[in-house]
Amino acid sequence: MKKCRITVMKIVCHKELIEKYENPIKNACDMKEGMIFISENAEKPQGLCDSAWETLFPFVKELANGGGNFYDGWMKNKKSAMLSCNDGFRPVSFLVEVTEE
Question: Is 80:2 a contact under the CB 8 Å cutoff?
Answer without folding.
Answer: no
